[in-house]
Design brief:
heterodimer; A: about 260 residues; alpha/beta; Transcription Regulator spoIIAA; Heat Shock Protein 90; five-stranded mixed beta sheet; five-stranded antiparallel beta sheet; 8 helices; 10 strands; B: about 120 residues; two-stranded parallel sheet; 8 strands
């Protein structure tokens, strides 16, 4: 596992298996890299398939050593699973992140297979107001091209808004974290897919058709988004991919 | 008509009688302003406005939070002998309310005049 130096950063790969020998070799490379005085150390985490307490301890040890030398640590090729563990342990913010890796994983999770006669878009936004508004605009432009019936377009717009809002507000991702989505339109079916790296959440287990009426008597003003998605969509499917990514697939039939 | 108050949002309110208030929505009632709608309705209810007419002429988008802002406050008006009446509801929004099985539950009138008639107000 080589150490690559650029003018201001040193790239090291974390060992996949933490044997005493591997840790000693890694430590040696880290010591060498720090003596060169980089601005940051980039740790390639792609070998961390199963994240153990030893891995976390090593990451923290690297962080402490680099910090004491005035060097930032950036984690690259992090799996969403690693991100979640670091967030759970309140360690995530101590490292600079390379969000492009998560972004790619999410895009892959929603990428359509590409059937004949289909039109599709794949896009990704972050969980900020501005970025999700931009994603909504891209989504509406795509729907507009399809010349859908007004009611179907309105239903899809509402579903899109509710899903993204639910991810932003309840999945535990930060504002900078990506949300990927794709839309596939075949002659009779629109399929929306959403992917995020937040906490596992299966909306198909939270359907409650009585929610709306009971809300009136309870005086409750929030918490109807999932019910609304179920009512407006034809099907809702959820999968947790690799214990890392939430993938939600929603379909809606249509005809011109 | 006594006065029109413009609050710092796209929601406006108009007092038409001492127990009747008209709230006009902007183009969207969603997560960004549903809490303002709840505050506006609750404040009006606390001041004795039994009837609240929600004029949706400009409304183009209604999210679950927007639905909730009306649904979660309507019983207070009804318990006080009044109601929250929706009017000028567009076809797509009416469709969503029907799909949610709320079109019969909520009081919905085609225009402002008919909504105010429910409140016993004639303009």
């Amino acid at each position: 596992m080589p150490t690559e130096m650029t003018s201001n950063s040193a790239a090291l790969s974390l060992p996949g298996e933490l044997t005493g020998e591997a840790i000693a070799a890694f430590q040696s490379r880290l010591d060498y890299a720090l003596r060169e005085g980089p601005d940051e150390v980039v740790l390639d985490c792609s070998h961390l398939v199963h994240v153990t307490s030893k891995d976390i301890a090593l990451l923290w040890q690297v962080h402490e050593q680099c910090t004491s030398s005035g060097v930032a640590v950036r984690l690259a090729a992090m799996s969403p699973y690693l991100i979640r563990i670091l967030k759970t342990l309140d360690l995530y913010e101590y490292f600079k992140q390379d969000s492009n890796e998560v972004r790619s994983a999410l895009i892959d999770a929603v990428r359509p297979a590409g059937g004949s006669g289909e039109e599709s878009i794949v896009d990704v936004c972050s969980a900020t107001d501005e970025s999700t508004a931009g994603a909504m605009e891209a989504f509406l432009r795509f729907l507009n091209r399809l010349k859908l019936p007004q009611i179907i377009e309105f239903e899809l717009r509402t579903v899109f808004y509710e899903v993204v809002t639910n991810i932003r507000m309840h999945s535990g991702i930060s504002h900078e974290d990506p949300i990927a989505f794709s839309v596939v339109a075949s002659p009779a079916l629109i399929t929306l897919r959403f992917a995020d790296s937040g906490a596992p959440f299966d909306p198909t287990e939270h359907r409650n058709d009585d929610t709306l009426r009971t809300a009136a008597t309870d005086g409750r003003t929030r918490g109807f988004g999932i019910t609304m998605i179920h009512k407006l969509a034809d099907s809702v499917r959820y999968a947790r991919e690799g214990d890392e990514i939430n993938v939600l697939e929603i379909t809606k039939g249509w005809s011109r | 008509m006594e006065s029109i108050t413009v609050v710092p949002s796209d929601l406006t309110q108009e007092i038409v009688r001492d127990d009747t208030l008209v709230i006009r929505t902007g183009t969207a009632l969603d997560n960004t302003n549903a809490h303002e709608m709840v505050d506006m309705i609750s404040s009006a209810q606390n001041k004795g406005f039994r009837f609240i007419v929600v004029d949706m002429t400009a409304l183009e988008f209604l999210s679950s939070a927007g639905v909730g802002s009306i649904l979660g406050t309507v019983e207070i008006s009804r318990e006080a002998g009044g109601d929250i009446i929706l009017c000028r509801v567009s076809e797509p929004i009416m469709h969503v309310l029907q799909v949610l099985d709320l079109a019969e539950f909520l009081t919905i009138k085609p225009d402002r005049q008919q909504a105010l008639t429910v409140c016993g107000v004639t303009e």
